[in-house]
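Lab notes, practical 5.
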Amino acid sequence: TQKQPDQALQRQGRGLPLGLAAFIFIAAILTTYTIASQGHSGGECDTYYPSATRDNHQNEAPTQDAMAKSKIVNKVLEPAQASNSESPLVADKVTVVLMSYPGSDRFHLLEKIIKRALQWPFVYEVLLVWNGDVSLVPLQIKELSAGVEHPGDKQHGIDHRDDQRSPELTILPQKLNRVDNRWRIGERVRTEAVLNMDDDIDLRTNGAQCLFDVWQASPDALVCLDVRSHYVHKEKSGKSEGPFGLYGYAARDTSTRDVKKFSISLPRSLLTSRKHFLAYDAAWRDESTQVKRIVDELLCDDIAFNFVANQGHNVPLSIYAKANYEPYAESNSDKAMVKKPGMKAKRQRCVNELAAALNMTLKHRYWHVVCSVDG
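Output from the prediction step:
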């Protein structure tokens, strides 16, 4: 018999409301496809063809060959499992991760976001990754904080704090102002689930709950509010490749008629597993992956996080959830990073360089989840 796509999404015993679970299950059966892939002469990256076919192997665990090709997965999983066995992580709560820096013009938004997240009943802790000297944290943020943790502090890492306590804000100062510091704090996180949020998103309580519910049904997934896609130039334009290689970067891949596909979860609000943060940190430290070099040069930490998380998986991990949120006006200001000259070209380069460096590319999905009318 044919296996159903995304079998993990069918599980309801981990907190997913029955109606939402039924919706996701039906949507997955009716519309989940992965695009047939084949290696090209330039390497082992997948090539996607316009004729979509149902993938009957989506539920299978990664093969030993796939794991062997993924140095990062092999390197990260064992330490993470050992850590969890010694100090179990909190399974029914979320750690919220935010990032800011001295000189930001969004402290008023950051304050609103922190205050709201601290009121969410499913939040264990809020971590503010502060890219600068702690003395420069604005007073209104310090007043919300339970304290500051440095990497050498005794409380760094997992502990056995009461998982029923009220959530607190902890500030994590960083030595350098790096765009990917937010992905490199996995060892500090004490929950299975981690919600990364940008400081320009007004995410409502039921919207955040939606992301958490969907993630609980599929814990490997990258559940997000917004997506982007790579595409294959040969399929979309007929050209063998673009200015930076085989792949382009766009809001959606429209190479298949009447289908808008995506493959990249954006970090505006992205809920996923702590293990992907550990995997990113391992990749960053491993010079052979070139992740650090590519991110430093092209400022594409979110794309790199997607690539690293998807290593060793034969099913796309991105899940697009239409939940209750609004972007603050500042998200589209002239100061936003996406508005900087050359950023689109950098992101196209990033997709091609990561595909070559990690000997892989991402897989597409085109269905989305709608939790409810309200969120």
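Observations recorded by the TA: The radius of gyration is 20 Å. The CA atoms of residues 94 and 210 lie 12 Å apart.
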